[in-house]
Amino acid sequence: MDSDTVPPGPDEPTGAQPPGFPMPAPSSGPGFPPPVAGAPVELRLPLVNSMPPGQRRWTIAIRILLVIPQFIVLVFVGIGAFFVAICAWFAALVTGRVPEGMASFLTFYVCWSVRVSAYLNLLTDTYPPFSGEDDPAYPVGPAFPQRGPLNRLAVLFRLILVIPAGFIQAFIGAGLGALLLFFWIAALVLGRLPDPLYRAIGTYVRFNARTTSYLFMLTGEYPWGWKGELDGLSGVAPGVATSAGTGQDYWAPVSSVTADAVPDVVTRFDFRLAGWSMAWIWIFLVIGVIFDLFYRR
């Protein structure tokens, strides 16, 4: 990557698609095709010169107000997803698969909720569309695995199996929520999230997407990765596709990127968290557990 490339300033929008590097759609597209059946859900996050993208301070200042319309609409979509998931559970129990139409609607909901979560948690400055359809222009998005047969026994006990991951998801989310005001102030001052926080929050959002997708039977892969990437699992190697001269990086599995799709440079990127990025995950988890214990007293 050209070291002289200057990242956008903190008050500049960063959602534009870089020239010469087709931004992939959440579940398809050049450089990020759908993972194979049974693979975990992945998450695309933008980096600018290997750093979190700059954000406009005025959108940070009123982020909670800007996201309210999204939450209102998403609540009604979520109610629909709840009933669709029940029907999908019965169908998968009988046929071993989630019917295409139901899976598409559940994917629609998860994708939309991931975008809203990423926007609220200051991972992107680009306002999410009122939709869960694939949008190649949006900088954050999940990549869902190709649909395949499901283990009927795992489907039968899905609600029980998801409990451990659900607890971790809830505790980390509670800890993150408790500290979000301080992160909001830091982002307001700096014009972007500090890098360790950006990576930690991005890891949580990805784990959240994996847990929800497993619950909704969009994948048979049990949700893992709350502490970051682990080599040797599901055949996914950590990596980032880089377009030389654009200053744009994209988190993506190396195995999903080919020389034909990205003609400039493909370099490895380690998703495993370390230092303060890993420390923040544990801080979120501990604070979430403490909050839960005090709430139950």
Can you describe this structure?
The strands form two sheets. A four-stranded antiparallel sheet has the order 2-5-4-6, with no helix packed on it. The chain has a two-stranded antiparallel ribbon with strand order 1-3. It has nine helices and six strands. The chain has helices at residues 57-61, 63-66, 68-95, 100-120, 152-156, 158-161, 163-190, 195-215, 276-296, and strands spanning 42-44, 46-48, 141-143, 240-243, 248-251, 265-267. The radius of gyration is 19 Å and the shape is globular. The protein has 297 residues and is α+β, with helices and mostly antiparallel strands. Mean pLDDT is 76; it is low at 1-33 and 232-270.
Short recap of the structure:
With 297 residues, the protein is α+β, with helices and mostly antiparallel strands.
Which structural class do you get from the secondary structure elements? alpha+beta
Tell me the span between the first and last alpha carbons.
Answer: 54 Å
Number of helices: 9
Summarize the amount of helix as a percent range.
40-55%
The whole-number mean of residue pLDDT values reads 76
For the largest sheet, list the strands in their spatial order: 2-5-4-6
Rg over C-alpha atoms, rounded to the nearest angstrom: 19 Å
Question: Judging from the principal axes of the Cα atoms, what is the shape?
Answer: globular
Work out the number of β strands.
Answer: 6
